[in-house]
Design brief:
Elements: E1 9-15, E2 19-28, E3 31-41, H1 50-65, E4 88-93, E5 100-105, H2 108-121, E6 125-131, H3 136-146, E7 153-158, H4 166-178, E8 189-194, H5 199-206, E9 212-214, H6 228-241, H7 249-255, E10 261-262, H8 263-275, E11 284-289, E12 294-299, E13 304-308, H9 317-324, H10 326-330, H11 336-351, H12 360-384, E14 394-398, H13 400-403, H14 408-419, E15 423-429, H15 435-441, H16 446-457, E16 459-466, E17 476-484, E18 487-494, E19 498-501, E20 507-513, H17 517-520, E21 525-529, E22 535-539, H18 551-565
Helix pairs in contact: 4-5, 8-15, 11-12, 12-14, 15-16
C-alpha cells in the first residue's frame, strides 16, 4: 500500500482475545496527539477474526471521531483522502496463542532447564521434552511421540562448544525419518542452539526437508547461559507460524503499513524506551494482565520477557485455577461473602469474558485474580534476573484487569501486593491500551510514537515508598515530610500499615526510618515526586509481605489496606 508523507493521521490497533483497542493519532499544531480511542469486543468463533474485529472497532471510532474511516466495502480508507480515512495503520495482536515447542537436550540441568527458560522468556508453550542422555529405547519412544505433540518448532540444545555432536545428529536422523511423509511446509521449524561443532552434522542428518535455523549456543561454556538469541528466534517463528493462521490475517496485512506483530514485542519496545528516560530513573518492570495470558518484563539493558500462556483472568482462568487453586485467589479477599461468591463471579467471567465489572465488589475479586496471575511469572522472572522485579524504579502496567478495575488506587494496591517493590517506585499505566502498536510505530515514525507516548499514552498513578524488613505492629516505621506547592505535610507511618497522601503537583519528599531521625543519625531518603491519580503510597507492611494466618485477622487487615488507599 502507499500512503501520504509525512502522515497526518495514524490508526493504532491492538487486537486481543477479548477486546480490540484502537487509537486515532492526529498531528495538531505540529505535534502528534492521541485524539480518540475506543474499545470494541473482539470478533471470534473458534478463533479470533482479525479483520472483522478491526472493522468493528473502526466503526465505533467513526462515531466517536465523527469522520469516515471505512470505505463502502468495509475496508479502511488508506491512505487518507482529505478528511476521509487515515495515512497509516499499525496492528499488533495477542490472539495468536503461544508457539508450541518440543525441546531436545543432552541433560536436564545443563540443556533442558536453559531451554525451558528461553521458552518462558518468549511466551512459548513446551509440549514435549526429550533428554538424549536417556536409555536408547526410552529416548526413541520420546522422539517418536514428538510428532503427536504437534509442535510448531523443535529446539535442539546443549553441549558446550567443542563437545560431542553424535547425540544430536542421531536425534536429527530420527526426526528426518519421523517426518518423512509430512509435507515440508507442515513440518516444525528446527532450531539448533547447541554445540557449534554439531551444527553441520545436524543439518546433514535432517536433510533438505526442514526449515533449519542456527542460533548462538545457549550454554557455550560451563557456568554460562545465553538464552537471548534463542528467545528472539522463537519470537520470530511465532509471528511467522501462529499469526498467519488467524482468520483475517491476509486481509489486514494488506492494510497495515508494517507487518502485524505480537503485542508483547511492541510492548517490549516501549518498556525499553521508558527505561532510557531520565525521569523514570532506570530499570522498568512491565506487567500485562490480560484475558488469556499474563506477561511480565524487565527492561534496562534489554527486556527479558516472560509470557505465562493460559494464565489470564477470564479466558485463561481455568489454567490459573488448575495451577494455583481458588484458595490462592480467595486469600486476597477482605470478607467471607466475597470469598463465597468469588468462584461464581470468576467462572461467569470465564464464560463471558467481555463482561465488565458491575461494581466495586466484582473489581475486588478480579484484582485478587490478577495478583495470582502475576505471581508465578514474577517468580520466574525474578530468578532469571537476580531479583530485578522488586528493585525496578518504574512499574509500567497494562491489561484490562488492571486498567479497567474502576479505581486507580485499588489497581495500584494489587500491583504493590503482587510485585512487593522495595524503596521508591513510580507506577504508570497504559490507560489507552496503545503501547504495543506505538512500539511498532516507532520503527517507522519515531517522532509520532515519542510524542504520543510522552504526552498522552502514559497515565501517572503515583509513587510507592516500600519499607523493607519488619517491625513491631503500631511502632513507627517511617517519618515523612512532603512539600508541595508551598504546603508542608508531615506524617509518621507505623509498621503494619499503608498510607496514601495525594500529590497533585510536583512535590519534594524526605523520609527517615522510625520516628526520631536525629537520634538515629540516618540520612533521609530524598526524591522529587510527580503528580499522579493516586499520589504517594507508603507501604510499611514490611517485606516480604506476610498475610495473617487466621481468616478473621487476614480479612481485617485486607479491609484496612483497601480503605487506606480509598
Amino acid at each position: 500500500m502507499t500512503e501520504s508523507y509525512p502522515p497526518r493521521t495514524i490508526l493504532l490497533a491492538d487486537i486481543g482475545t477479548t477486546w480490540t483497542h484502537v487509537g486515532l493519532v492526529e498531528r495538531v499544531a505540529g505535534a502528534f496527539r492521541l485524539a480518540a480511542r475506543v474499545d470494541s469486543a473482539t470478533q471470534s468463533a473458534d478463533r479470533v477474526d482479525l479483520a472483522s474485529s478491526l472493522t468493528a472497532a473502526l466503526e465505533r471510532m467513526q462515531e466517536i471521531a465523527r469522520r469516515p474511516l471505512l470505505s463502502d466495502d468495509g475496508s479502511p480508507v488508506l491512505p487518507r483522502e482529505r478528511e476521509r480515512g487515515s495515512d497509516l495503520l499499525v496492528v499488533t495482536t495477542s490472539a495468536g496463542g503461544p508457539l508450541r515447542c518440543g525441546i531436545i537436550g543432552l541433560t536436564p540441568e545443563l540443556s533442558l532447564e536453559p531451554g525451558r527458560q528461553a521458552c518462558a522468556l518468549s511466551g512459548t508453550q513446551i509440549v514435549s521434552e526429550i533428554g538424549l542422555a536417556e536409555e536408547r529405547p526410552r529416548r526413541h519412544r520420546a522422539l517418536a511421540g514428538l510428532r503427536a505433540a504437534l509442535p510448531d518448532v523443535v529446539v535442539m540444545l546443549g553441549g558446550v562448544d567443542g563437545g560431542p555432536s553424535r547425540p544430536f545428529s542421531a536425534a536429527a536422523s530420527v526426526l528426518s525419518t519421523l517426518y518423512a511423509d509430512v509435507p515440508a511446509d507442515q513440518r516444525p521449524v528446527v532450531v539448533f542452539a547447541g554445540n557449534l561443532e554439531a551444527r553441520r552434522p545436524v543439518a546433514e542428518a535432517l536433510g533438505r526437508g526442514f526449515d533449519y535455523r542456527v542460533v548462538e549456543n545457549i550454554h557455550p561454556r560451563l557456568g554460562e547461559t545465553s538464552p537471548q538469541e534463542l528467545q528472539r528466534e522463537l519470537e520470530r517463528i511465532h509471528v511467522e507460524r501462529r499469526l498467519p493462521q488467524l482468520p483475517g490475517y491476509a486481509e489486514i496485512s494488506g492494510w497495515s503499513a508494517l507487518p502485524i506483530t505480537a503485542t508483547g514485542t511492541g510492548t517490549a519496545v516501549i518498556l525499553e524506551f521508558l527505561s532510557r528516560q531520565g525521569r523514570y530513573g532506570g530499570s522498568v518492570l512491565g506487567v500485562d494482565v490480560g484475558a488469556a495470558s499474563t506477561l511480565v518484563a524487565v527492561a534496562g539493558e534489554g527486556p527479558y520477557v516472560i509470557q505465562a500462556a493460559g494464565s489470564g483472568t477470564s479466558r485463561g482462568l481455568e489454567q490459573l485455577l488448575e495451577d494455583q487453586g481458588m484458595a490462592s485467589i480467595q486469600r486476597w479477599l477482605p470478607s467471607p461473602h466475597l470469598e463465597a461468591t468469588a468462584a461464581a463471579i470468576l467462572r461467569n467471567r470465564a464464560l463471558r469474558p467481555q463482561t465488565l465489572p458491575e461494581d466495586a465488589r466484582e473489581s475486588t475479586i478480579i484484582l485478587a485474580a490478577a495478583r495470582e496471575a502475576l505471581r508465578r511469572p514474577l517468580q520466574t522472572l525474578d530468578t532469571l534476573t537476580n531479583g530485578a522485579t522488586s528493585e525496578a524504579h518504574l512499574i509500567a502496567a497494562r491489561g484490562g484487569s488492571i486498567t479497567r478495575s474502576g479505581r486507580d488506587s485499588q489497581a495500584m494496591l494489587a500491583l504493590i501486593d503482587a510485585i512487593q517493590p522495595s524503596g521508591l517506585t513510580r507506577v504508570v499505566s497504559d490507560w489507552a491500551s496503545v503501547w504495543a502498536p506505538l512500539g511498532i510505530l516507532a520503527r517507522r515514525e519515531p517522532l509520532a510514537a515519542l510524542q504520543v507516548l510522552q504526552r498522552d499514552a502514559v497515565r501517572e498513578l503515583g509513587t510507592v515508598l516500600s519499607i523493607e524488613g519488619h517491625g513491631p505492629s503500631g511502632q513507627p516505621a517511617v517519618r515523612l515530610r512532603l512539600e508541595c506547592t508551598g504546603e508542608i505535610i508531615e506524617a509518621n507511618v507505623p509498621w503494619g500499615s499503608l498510607a496514601r497522601i495525594p500529590v497533585e503537583a510536583q512535590a519534594e519528599l524526605r523520609a527517615w526510618p522510625g520516628n526520631e531521625p536525629a537520634a538515629i543519625g540516618a540520612a533521609p531518603i530524598r526524591a522529587a515526586l510527580a503528580p499522579g491519580t493516586v499520589g504517594l503510597v507508603v507501604d510499611a507492611r514490611g517485606r516480604p509481605l506476610q498475610l495473617p494466618e487466621s481468616d478473621a485477622a487476614r480479612q481485617g487487615e485486607l479491609e484496612k489496606w483497601l480503605s487506606a488507599l480509598g
